[in-house]
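User: Okay, second chain of the day. Same drill as before: sequence in, structure tokens out.
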Amino acid sequence: MKKFFAILFIIGAAGLSAADKTAADAPDFSSFVWPVESGAYKPGAGVELAQSLCITCHSTEYVSTQPPLPRKFWEATVKKMKEKYAAPLPEDNAALIDYLTSAYGSK
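Assistant: Same drill. Structure tokens below.
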């Protein structure tokens, strides 16, 4: 039982010390240079949508490494990106979903 309370104490102390840190302790990323995107989306009708919308949040490799999946997967993925991750996507995403399905979907 003593070990249990010792572990709880350590966890609690670690949490307090993390909460005591201020913004001044945070790393300064103001001069960070992001790597240049080297990938490209597959050509096709709607590729410009993926190039302008999807790449604002992740690399092209994120999409290109997905296995070929059906349209329902791409519909759910685009919906998740918009609703859960607040991706800056338009209300009507049919053209983007059409592109993702035709370029990266299952046949």
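Residues 39 and 60 are 6 Å apart (CA to CA).

User: Thanks, on to the next one.
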